[in-house]
Design brief:
By secondary structure, the protein is α+β, with helices and mostly antiparallel strands. The strands form seven sheets. Strands 1, 2, 3, 4, 5, 6, 7, 9, 10 and 12 form a ten-stranded mixed sheet that branches.
Length: 1170
């Protein structure tokens, strides 16, 4: 029942990152995970080596674990593990430097623990007895620079938030109340069912979710893994509907249909929320008005809620909870706030030790049809639960070899054959009790044609491993790499860290090893053949045989026809997503061949990793406070180098960004495509060399973009220059291989094609960017160019791109400026190119004229996608004007939480709703963007957004001085947050360098400037720039409209009119029955309406002539016309808007933004020796 208790993005995938395992988590909210950490836990089966000491000095007694938590020497945070009398364990984390607090509570119950007959019921708790207002929690966080989210896993549900440190007590109080005194408001039931259903429909065309569910569906009958974990409206209300059909539910009078007393929840609570948590929608639409008729969903909704409350009262037990937070005062606070959670005596960490793979599931090949265009093959082997193997992590040892990309590897061999583009391998915990080892191949079309050969090649490599001796240095390398990573791990955002800690508190490790055990790998003990480590690995390796595997083959339907022939496969349908699949047992001959010893000489074990850092020295110089910007330390006609020596994180790491700008890549869609192919070929050619570097903690990225080529390096600085040299030399000297070019072209083609099959809100946002960028190409334009690019043309293009460039470079971290300067000089020497002024390669946006209201409509390309999307952009002004910039940010902050609360929570428009500030291309112009993805048509969404904006005018006008100050302070705190790690610091600097404004102190300056911005200023800005009634407003909305017809609906008013006519014609009408069946959720599907009344009228055929029923049926069309449904599928007319007919002509009519310019002259170079 986890989905409704934790209800609340996935990238558009050219290939899914995880094909048959769980999509990690079921995300339960839309909003950023920003980042104080508190972590809580139940009673894991840990081999406790310390003792618990009683503390009775505070308001509520608790116990403290005696041993100190093992942490990195680099980690300056304090840790303490406490245990409350109700069994809840909490990890308290104190960071004296923190400007943000966070907490994560992990409940050891996931969707596998839901009742088999009522899948996934879990987030109707919108208010609590202490804080009954529905959005009290989210509103409090928003006003204190915070946010929250939750997710449901297979065996856990995690709730977390972040907030300004000063607001932690209030946030914790509101947070804790959800776990001991939640209000499962009846009025929330239908809305949360709709939210879960909307999320399911959002994912319905996602291959990741479809593949995941097919693999679950093909598990052992009766196994919990078979469950439909994410849930939808049908699954959530299934039991209620079945009980209703049997006459076992009450009809509102406290009696069941058979006259017996209605069932009660565990706590006897079926009462309405003490204070109505649902405020009326602003300018309510017909749908929102109708949904007020019976907000609890009628008898089915009430039964769904009853089961939820009953389940929560049984399963949400303190002993199953893990909490992570930040020490003495915090411990007292946690004990006071979380001790009221009852311990219901449930098993703290329930294990499911039975694996979902049985004899019938293993030794099979599953063919599966995808939505997106890709070819993949995944081989899975059942594994036991992995955390008990935390010391030596044997499955990870095997993953090191099977997933290796260096010489002699499976990846290298298959890539050279032209069969694959990528390979991944490794263990995956599916649930608490069982795991899987997976080898995933992303194939070329040629590889797909020979998928059987690829399967046999995988088992040849496994056979080679089985016959190999593994010197202990392999495990020693893993141990050294993990120890180095643990020692120099940088801090994360507090809520990210709190979630990680709370999740791992359930591991069966001593409490002092909660942090270290999941991350460190111990060396093998060569003197202990039983428990030394190698035996564990060998035992797992011996299970990696084809008889114990399941292989899943994935491709579009037409690819199966191409390779295996038309009508050669008898497809079946998975029930929840409708995915086509076919299962067949592997033949004896195929299995026999897979068990043959390896005969491929090209396969061999990797050698020692030469990239493991040896110099990890950091010269730590105490500074009064860290510098707030990088310094320009070197400038030549060809390059500019910005540098900052690390003065706050003190890790032996550096991050380098090198932007190699050229005017050539963006002259046309074709040159853009060729630049991308160039970058792809460089990356492809460096795979074997760079893989060891990546393993050792040093990685790079090289890609094309509209201004040229973009290269980053980050990790341990010891050998960073070695990797940089190899990448730059490959860039300069690449010879285009015709074979590899064809592979890269195929990848690019599929990525561009798959773009159109992604989420509609991503499409509408993309088109909004396209319409407002000076030089941009559509995916369709790029797709047209891919097939005809030749090796010769690409080679010529590469020379042109590199002939004249300007390099913008940033180096931050454990590198002195002379080392950074040598890196810049090396880049110039290797590239051997001429220079161009930086001003010749810039990006600019297009500016909407004042008083404009534009709409562009385009269909969703995927005809099976039920959702439409609206991206609604309001232009505010120039970011170069500080007051405009800061005011726009404050207005966006004020609008954000109400937009979500009104458009998603109250109006139920859809799962994806967001309002935020939007900086346009080039960073010189800014505005506010509201995005909504919904089954409703975009024109209706636009009307609701404008109704929301009109209501916000009143809210701003009546907003108290205190509330306005809360918003202002929250934004100031966000801007004054210190970066948490090197990556965050680099990101803050790079935007100013990339865009050319060099306004490094903007965050602090804008935070100061907010002090002078008043509520009247924001109201005036809103009314002139954002309010729909403004004559000076500049607005563009993108309507991406679904092509999938929606089921016809009939309004409640029409149904009432029809029921009245039925009664007038002599029929007996049970008003309570028809409303419960048809109107519990407002407008009803027309088909459902017709079926209900057909059966009802037929049942009375003996007393009323059937001809009367036929005459009544003829009156329905007129009633539909007289009382239209709010969502009748008809096009909504929007008055006063200009509809864009031709995007290119529209873009040509807009003026470009100002050319970027440095807003501050830092005068660095005169004092620099470079």
């Amino acid at each position: 029942m986890q989905r409704l208790l934790a209800a609340a993005r996935r990238p558009i995938l050219s290939r899914p990152p995880s094909l048959s395992g769980p999509p990690s988590r079921f995300p339960l909210g839309l909003g950023p995970r920003l980042g104080f950490a508190m972590v809580a836990s139940g009673n894991p089966a840990d081999p406790t080596t310390g003792t618990w000491q009683r503390v009775s000095s505070g308001p509520v007694p608790y116990e403290v674990y005696s041993k100190p938590v093992e942490k990195s020497p680099q980690d300056d945070r304090e840790y303490r593990v406490i245990r409350l009398d109700n069994g809840l364990q909490a990890m308290l984390v104190h960071d004296a430097k923190a400007d943000k607090a966070a907490a994560s509570l992990d409940v050891a119950v996931g969707h596998l623990y839901d009742p088999l007959d009522s899948v996934a019921i879990s987030h109707t708790a919108k208010g609590t007895e202490q804080y009954p207002k529905e959005n009290e929690y989210s509103e409090y966080l928003a006003k204190n620079n915070g946010s929250s989210n939750a997710y449901t896993g297979t065996s856990n549900t995690n709730y977390y938030f972040n907030v300004a440190t000063t607001a932690l007590p209030g946030a914790l109080s509101r947070f804790a109340a959800f776990f001991h005194c939640p209000l499962f408001a009846p009025s929330c039931t239908v809305r949360e069912l709709n939210a879960v259903d909307s999320e399911h429909k959002k994912n319905h065309q996602s291959d990741m979710w479809r593949i995941f569910q097919v693999n679950k569906h093909l598990s052992k009958p009766g196994h919990p893994w078979r469950k439909f974990g994410s849930g939808n409206k049908e699954s959530l209300s299934k039991v209620g509907r079945e009980l209703k059909e049997k006459g076992l539910l009450q009809n509102g009078n406290g009696q069941n249909g058979n006259g017996t007393a209605a069932m009660k929840s565990a706590d006897g609570s079926l009462a309405a929320t003490p204070n109505d948590s649902r405020a009326a929608s602003p300018a309510p639409s017909a749908s929102s008005a109708n949904s007020e008729l019976e907000g609890d969903g009628g008898v089915v909704g009430r039964e769904t809620r009853r089961r939820l409350v009953e389940w929560w009262s049984r399963e949400y037990c303190a002993g199953r909870m893990r909490l992570a937070e930040s020490l003495d005062e915090l411990a007292d606070m946690v004990a006071s706030l979380f001790s009221p959670i009852p311990n219901r005596g449930r098993e703290p960490l329930h294990m499911i030790n039975d694996h979902p793979f049985g004899p019938n599931e293993m030794g099979t090949l599953v063919s599966l049809q995808t939505i997106m265009s890709f070819h993949a093959l995944e081989i899975s082997f059942p594994l036991p639960y992995l955390p008990p193997f935390w010391r030596h992590k044997p499955a990870g040892f095997l993953a090191h070899f099977l997933g290796h990309e260096g010489p002699g590897s499976l990846h290298s061999y298959m890539k050279q054959k032209g069969w694959i583009t990528a390979l991944s391998a490794g263990p995956q915990n599916l649930a608490r009790g069982f795991a899987m080892f997976k080898i995933t191949l992303y194939m070329t079309p040629q590889g797909f044609e020979q998928y059987e050969t690829l399967i046999h090649t995988v088992f040849k490599y496994i056979s080679m491993l089985r016959s190999s001796n593994f010197p202990a240095w392999y495990q020693r390398e893993r141990s050294l790499i993990s120890a180095t990573r643990f020692r120099f791990a940088e801090k994360r955002r507090p809520d990210d860290y709190a979630v990680w800690v709370s999740e791992h508190m359930s591991w069966p490790v001593p409490r002092e090893l909660i942090l270290s055990a999941p991350q460190l790998v111990q060396e093998w003990d060569e003197n202990d053949p039983v428990n030394g480590g190698e035996r564990e690995m060998r035992e797992i390796l011996d299970t990696l045989v084809i008889e114990r595997s399941r292989t899943v083959l994935m491709a579009k339907a037409e690819e199966y026809e191409r390779v295996r022939g038309k009508d050669s496969i008898a497809w079946e349908k998975e029930p929840w997503y409708g995915t086509s699949y076919h299962v067949e047992r592997l033949s004896e001959d195929f299995v026999k061949k897979a068990n043959e010893p390896n005969d491929l000489k090209e396969l061999f074990l990797p050698g020692p990793n030469e990239f493991i850092p040896t110099n990890l020295d950091v010269e730590k110089r105490e500074v009064e406070k860290p510098a707030k910007r990088p310094f320009l330390v070197r400038e030549t006609p060809l390059s500019s180098l910005w540098h900052k020596k690390d003065d706050q994180f003190w890790v032996p790491k550096a991050q380098v960004i090198m932007d190699i700008r050229s005017p050539v890549p963006n002259t046309s869609g074709r040159t853009f495509v060729m630049t991308r192919l160039f970058a792809d070929l460089v990356t492809d050619s460096l795979t074997e060399f760079a893989y060891d570097a990546d393993l050792a903690g040093l990685s790079y990225y090289f890609g094309g973009h509209s201004l040229g080529l973009y290269m980053t390096l980050n990790g341990y600085n010891d050998k960073l220059h070695v990797l940089a040299k190899h990448v730059l030399e490959r860039v300069r000297n690449l010879k285009v291989s015709p074979d590899r070019l064809e592979v890269m072209k195929d990848q690019a083609k599929r990525e561009y094609e798959n773009f159109f099959l992604g989420q509609p809100y991503r499409l509408s946002d993309y088109y909004a960017r396209y319409m407002l960028s000076e030089r941009e190409w559509t995916m369709s334009e790029l797709l047209e160019e891919v097939p005809t690019v030749t090796p010769e043309e690409l080679q010529t293009h590469i020379a042109a791109v590199l002939s004249k460039v300007n390099i913008q470079m940033l180096v931050v971290g454990n590198m002195y400026k002379d080392e950074a300067a040598r890196l810049a000089q090396m880049a110039e020497d290797i590239l051997q190119t001429s220079s161009i002024p930086a001003s010749e390669v810039i990006e600019r946006s297009l500016v909407l004229p004042s008083g404009s209201n534009f709409i562009w409509t385009t269909p969703v390309p995927n005809k099976d996608e039920p959702n439409s999307s609206l991206s609604y952009y309001i232009h505010i002004g120039k970011t170069t004007e500080p007051r405009v910039r800061a005011s726009a940010a404050l207005l966006a902050h004020i609008l954000s939480e109400p937009a979500f609360n009104v458009l998603r929570t109250r109006e139920q428009l859809g799962y994806i709703v967001s309002a935020s500030q939007w900086n346009l291309t080039g960073g010189g112009e800014t505005g506010i963007r509201i995005v909504v993805q919904s089954e409703r048509q975009p024109a209706h969404l636009e009307q609701r957004v404008e109704a929301f904006l009109r209501e916000m005018d009143e809210k701003l006008q009546t907003m108290s001085t205190e509330e306005f100050q809360e918003h202002r302070v929250a934004l100031q705190k966000r801007w004054r947050e210190a970066p948490k790690n090197l990556g965050e610091e680099v990101n803050r600097y790079w935007g100013h360098i990339e865009q050319g404004y060099l306004d490094f102190h903007r965050r602090d300056n804008d935070a100061d400037l907010l002090e002078s911005i008043t509520k009247d200023d924001i109201l005036a800005l809103f009314r002139s720039r954002a309010g729909p009634s403004s004559t000076s407003r500049a607005k563009l909305s993108i309507h991406v409209k679904s092509q999938k017809p929606r089921p016809a609906k009939i309004s409640v008013a029409a149904m009432e009119a029809f029921a009245k006519k039925v009664a007038e014609h002599g029929y007996a009408v049970d008003e309570q029955a028809w409303k419960a069946n048809l109107a519990a959720e407002g407008d009803a599907p027309l088909e459902k309406f017709a079926n209900y009344w057909r059966d009802t009228l037929l049942a009375q055929a003996s007393t009323v002539s059937p001809q009367v029923a036929q005459e009544l049926t003829k009156e329905v069309p007129a009633l539909l016309e007289q009382y239209p449904a709010s969502d009748d599928g008809k096009d909504v007319v929007i008055e006063g808007a200009t509809f864009v007919q031709e995007p290119k002509a529209f873009r040509a009519s807009l003026e470009p933004s100002e050319r970027p310019r440095a807003l501050v002259d830092w005068n660095d170079l005169p004092t620099s020796k470079f």
